[in-house]
């Protein structure tokens, strides 16, 4: 009898292990990269360098955390980079030109970021337009406003305490890293623990079914895009602090970096599933590769090729493992 | 009509996931014949046609076409051999011109050194049109045409492929009387040229008027082949309905009360349904019969708030309700199990538990944070009721069988503690064992006082479960019948729109 249950349990356990491995392959990839890099360069696995990597991925990471929800809901937001630039300019303008207190300027920046995101959601829902096109338009719109407003001149002369947000340390830990981790925790909580998160996944999995279950799609969409807008604003503040200036070209091409991190992290581009921790690891992997190639003194143009290859490899691994899993399941 | 046999399908069988769709398919078509194919929804007509076209492969049986045995692997192959189907939905590219649509995929006929000779194309198109007496400008954009004209274009396209057998699936369902006359004229012309037509329709009078002969199917079986001059509407209806009541399910007791739970008054949605009045009592099962496309689902979706309606009132326990979306309906206690499980019901990327709790998630939340313990215990309470076997609540719903998926979705609505539960085709695509479990469950829910509205195309199911039956035809309530007076033939007579007294 005992052996009978044992026999039954073993494949069951193996099945579980297999599912866990396949669902979290991004960790394995990250680990593998770390091992390879630490063999290739002795400077790689030092505290300073690890914090270096984390600091480098901060801006992308903060935006990508919220971006996971967009992808999970089966939508897309191409305007994130422009929102980052816009919020950077708004916040700096309020501090430098209007001479507003820093806290108020930051709060205003956060509000503007959120409203920009919500504007996307309202246009998509109200006119039933494809998110790709709407956010392509607002990407150009927000960026254009930034250019005209600043006359293409970056804003400098920011107060030191503001610059500290981007450059300072708390003990040995860079403040931007703390902000990034906090952002990921909040987004993770909203996704995994709240009804909002559940509704996002349902919307990405089957929009029509979710609607017929009483999920108000337009409201959920407002939440998602608002949240991403807020993430952009946080990233903008960190970025502006780090460069001690609000650059008009800030965040150019950021949507692509976000997609890279999210997709490598295991959130399917078609939506219906989300892996927030995966997105963090995804951003980290991009960071490791860039950092590693830097350490090895590889031409920066090759890094662009490396990024492209990485996305392809991530997708190929994903497809192969899903096929493998389906085949196994069918056999059972 | 020549007496040359064009097509002969014998003893065709086809199953999908152990469900027999066609068990004894027989079809004979002669050259130049217009042949009707009729039967209830799910009688196996479209499966038989899809086997002929190569969309599905038959399990057994033989198909002889022009004297040769065939088994096409794709509609493309069938098309190349002269068999084509004109579907109910128009299959044209709306932005392209008439002639571009007609010759789509055959452009090589007009190509010279890679350049399209549009003049030649226009000339050939005009020739074809003249042959059939159709007057449509080959250069008009398809989207500017009427539905009837689009159907004619599809006919011309079939002709351009030298089709010898054209299958038309309910070609008249969206046409006005005058347009039907034109279509029929052209179909007759084609038949005179030696083209054979299989004419699928739900309209008995039309079949009798247009066709030379008709084949009837029921439950995947061949019921008979008759020359239309030998039969009338009554005999045809008898063939469609068959004799036996095969549901084999008997309700143990009737629990309907006099207490009206839901009342719908003067419900109307332009072009979809009108003048709809009905009510359901606590503990009652109201069956809704009618043909597919009659407006049954549309009426109920509007009650549930999934679609808009133009006018009319919904009263729940005597109180008038404003229902703007499904959320309003669910909160008030009106729930609806959708007919298309895959497209409108399940979220495949989510677990069994998450699928079940999707409609009622807010009940288990405090400050939007989901209390998973509460969620799980509510789920188990309902699932014990439903007797669902599952390995784990965290398993993905797509790993379950169709019957178990349906039970999870039923569980979803029971978690909302509905007063009114609308079930749209609750047993579609479900094996026979699970079917009975669902019947028992529906009965049990009625016993508890839930008012149940059940839309079903399976007549035996409607007749054995319902306290009353409402028949919908052309967006109107054609009849309301009580349990005693309900008979298969009466229901079908109302659904097909023929009057028994005549």
From TrEMBL, chain A:
<feature type="transmembrane region" description="Helical">
    <location>
        <begin position="132"/>
        <end position="156"/>
    </location>
</feature>
<dbReference type="GO" id="GO:0005886">
    <property type="term" value="C:plasma membrane"/>
</dbReference>
<protein>
    <submittedName>
        <fullName>ABC transporter permease</fullName>
    </submittedName>
</protein>
<feature type="transmembrane region" description="Helical">
    <location>
        <begin position="276"/>
        <end position="298"/>
    </location>
</feature>
<dbReference type="InterPro" id="IPR001851">
    <property type="entry name" value="ABC_transp_permease"/>
</dbReference>
<keyword id="KW-1003">Cell membrane</keyword>
<keyword id="KW-1133">Transmembrane helix</keyword>
<keyword id="KW-0813">Transport</keyword>
<feature type="transmembrane region" description="Helical">
    <location>
        <begin position="168"/>
        <end position="190"/>
    </location>
</feature>
<dbReference type="Pfam" id="PF02653">
    <property type="entry name" value="BPD_transp_2"/>
</dbReference>
<keyword id="KW-0997">Cell inner membrane</keyword>
<feature type="transmembrane region" description="Helical">
    <location>
        <begin position="78"/>
        <end position="96"/>
    </location>
</feature>
<keyword id="KW-0472">Membrane</keyword>
<keyword id="KW-0812">Transmembrane</keyword>
<feature type="transmembrane region" description="Helical">
    <location>
        <begin position="53"/>
        <end position="72"/>
    </location>
</feature>
<dbReference type="GO" id="GO:0022857">
    <property type="term" value="F:transmembrane transporter activity"/>
</dbReference>
<feature type="transmembrane region" description="Helical">
    <location>
        <begin position="20"/>
        <end position="41"/>
    </location>
</feature>
<feature type="transmembrane region" description="Helical">
    <location>
        <begin position="103"/>
        <end position="126"/>
    </location>
</feature>
<feature type="transmembrane region" description="Helical">
    <location>
        <begin position="222"/>
        <end position="239"/>
    </location>
</feature>
From TrEMBL, chain B:
<dbReference type="GO" id="GO:0005524">
    <property type="term" value="F:ATP binding"/>
</dbReference>
<keyword id="KW-0762">Sugar transport</keyword>
<keyword id="KW-1278">Translocase</keyword>
<feature type="domain" description="ABC transporter">
    <location>
        <begin position="254"/>
        <end position="499"/>
    </location>
</feature>
<dbReference type="GO" id="GO:0005886">
    <property type="term" value="C:plasma membrane"/>
</dbReference>
<dbReference type="InterPro" id="IPR050107">
    <property type="entry name" value="ABC_carbohydrate_import_ATPase"/>
</dbReference>
<keyword id="KW-0067">ATP-binding</keyword>
<keyword id="KW-1003">Cell membrane</keyword>
<dbReference type="InterPro" id="IPR017871">
    <property type="entry name" value="ABC_transporter-like_CS"/>
</dbReference>
<dbReference type="InterPro" id="IPR003593">
    <property type="entry name" value="AAA+_ATPase"/>
</dbReference>
<keyword id="KW-0472">Membrane</keyword>
<keyword id="KW-0677">Repeat</keyword>
<feature type="domain" description="ABC transporter">
    <location>
        <begin position="7"/>
        <end position="244"/>
    </location>
</feature>
<dbReference type="InterPro" id="IPR003439">
    <property type="entry name" value="ABC_transporter-like_ATP-bd"/>
</dbReference>
<keyword id="KW-0547">Nucleotide-binding</keyword>
<dbReference type="Pfam" id="PF00005">
    <property type="entry name" value="ABC_tran"/>
</dbReference>
<protein>
    <submittedName>
        <fullName>Sugar ABC transporter ATP-binding protein</fullName>
    </submittedName>
</protein>
<dbReference type="GO" id="GO:0016887">
    <property type="term" value="F:ATP hydrolysis activity"/>
</dbReference>
<keyword id="KW-0813">Transport</keyword>
<dbReference type="InterPro" id="IPR027417">
    <property type="entry name" value="P-loop_NTPase"/>
</dbReference>
């Amino acid at each position: 009898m005992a052996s009978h249950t044992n026999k039954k349990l073993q494949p069951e356990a193996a099945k579980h292990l297999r599912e866990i491995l396949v669902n979290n392959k991004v960790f394995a990839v990250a680990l593998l990269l770390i091992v390879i890099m630490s063999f290739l360069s002795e400077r790689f696995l030092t505290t300073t360098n690890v914090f270096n990597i984390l600091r480098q991925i901060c801006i992308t990471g903060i935006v990508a955390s919220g971006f996971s929800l967009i992808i999970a809901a089966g939508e897309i937001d191409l305007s994130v980079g422009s929102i980052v630039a816009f919020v950077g300019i708004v916040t700096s303008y309020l501090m430098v030109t209007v001479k507003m207190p820093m806290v108020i300027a930051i709060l205003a920046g956060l509000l503007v970021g959120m409203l920009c995101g919500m504007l996307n959601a309202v246009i998509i829902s109200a006119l039933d337009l494809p998110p790709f096109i709407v956010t392509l338009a607002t990407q150009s719109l927000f960026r254009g406003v930034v250019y005209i407003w600043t006359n293409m001149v970056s804003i400098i002369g920011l107060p030191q305490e503001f610059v500290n947000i981007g450059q300072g340390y708390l003990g040995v830990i860079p403040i931007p890293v703390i902000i990034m981790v906090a952002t990921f925790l909040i987004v993770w909580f909203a996704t995994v623990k709240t009804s909002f998160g559940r509704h996002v996944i349902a919307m990405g999995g089957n929009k029509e079914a979710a609607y017929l279950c009483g999920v108000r799609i337009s409201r959920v969409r407002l939440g998602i895009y608002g949240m991403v807008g807020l993430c952009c604003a946080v990233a903008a503040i960190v970025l502006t602090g780090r460069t001690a200036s609000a650059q008009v070209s800030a965040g150019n091409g950021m949507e692509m970096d976000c997609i890279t991190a999210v997709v490598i992290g295991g959130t399917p581009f078609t939506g219906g599933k989300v892996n927030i921790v995966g997105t963090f690891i995804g951003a980290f992997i991009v960071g490791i590769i860039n950092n590693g190639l830097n350490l090895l003194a590889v031409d920066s143009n090759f890094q662009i090729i490396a990024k492209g290859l990485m996305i392809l490899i991530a997708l190929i691994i994903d497809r192969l493992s899903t096929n493998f899993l389906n085949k196994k399941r069918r056999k059972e | 009509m020549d007496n040359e046999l064009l097509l002969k399908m014998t003893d065709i069988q086809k199953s999908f996931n152990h469900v027999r769709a066609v068990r004894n398919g027989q079809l004979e078509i002669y050259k130049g014949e217009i042949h009707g194919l009729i039967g209830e929804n799910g009688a196996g007509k479209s499966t038989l046609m899809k086997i002929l076209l190569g969309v599905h492969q038959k399990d057994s049986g033989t198909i002889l076409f022009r004297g040769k045995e065939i088994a096409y692997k794709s509609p493309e192959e069938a098309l190349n051999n002269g068999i084509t189907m004109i579907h109910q939905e128009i299959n044209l590219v709306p932005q392209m011109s008439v002639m571009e649509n007609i010759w789509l995929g055959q452009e090589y006929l007009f190509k010279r050194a890679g350049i399209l000779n549009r003049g030649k194309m226009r000339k050939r198109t005009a020739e074809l049109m003249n042959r059939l007496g159709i007057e449509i400008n080959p250069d008009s954009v398809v989207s500017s045409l009427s539905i009837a004209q689009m159907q004619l274009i599809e006919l011309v396209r079939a002709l351009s492929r030298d089709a010898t057998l054209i299958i038309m699936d309910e070609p008249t369902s969206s046409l006005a009387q005058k347009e039907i006359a034109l279509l029929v004229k052209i179909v007759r012309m084609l038949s005179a040229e030696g083209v054979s037509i299989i004419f699928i329709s739900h309209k008995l009078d039309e079949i009798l008027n247009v066709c030379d002969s008709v084949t009837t199917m029921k439950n995947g079986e061949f019921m008979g082949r008759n020359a239309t001059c030998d039969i009338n509407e009554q005999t045809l209806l008898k063939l469609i309905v068959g004799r036996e009541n095969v549901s084999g399910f008997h309700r143990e007791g009737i629990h309907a009360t006099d207490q009206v739970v839901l009342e719908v008054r003067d419900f109307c949605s332009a072009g979809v349904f009108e003048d709809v009045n009905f009510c359901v009592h606590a503990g009652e099962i109201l069956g809704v019969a009618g043909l597919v496309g009659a407006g049954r689902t549309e009426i109920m979706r509007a009650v549930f708030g999934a679609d808009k309606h133009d006018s009319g009132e919904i009263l729940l326990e005597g109180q008038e309700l404003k229902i703007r979306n499904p959320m309003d309906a669910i909160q008030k206690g009106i729930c609806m199990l959708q007919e298309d499980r895959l497209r409108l019901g399940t979220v495949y990327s989510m677990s069994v538990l998450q699928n079940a709790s999707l409609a009622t998630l807010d009940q288990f939340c405090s400050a939007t944070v989901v209390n998973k313990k509460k969620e799980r215990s509510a789920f188990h309470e309902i699932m014990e009721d439903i007797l669902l076997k599952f390995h784990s609540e965290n398993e993905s719903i797509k790993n379950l069988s169709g019957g178990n998926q349906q039970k999870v979705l039923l569980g979803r609505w029971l978690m909302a503690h509905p007063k009114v539960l609308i079930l749209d085709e609750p047993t579609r695509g479900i094996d026979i064992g699970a079917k009975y479990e669902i019947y028992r469950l529906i009965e049990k829910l009625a016993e508890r006082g839930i008012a149940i509205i059940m839309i079903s195309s399976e007549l035996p199911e409607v007749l054995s479960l319902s306290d009353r039956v409402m028949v919908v035809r052309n967006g109107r309530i054609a009849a309301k019948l009580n349990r005693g007076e309900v008979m298969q033939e009466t229901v079908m007579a109302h659904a097909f729109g023929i009057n028994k007294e005549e």
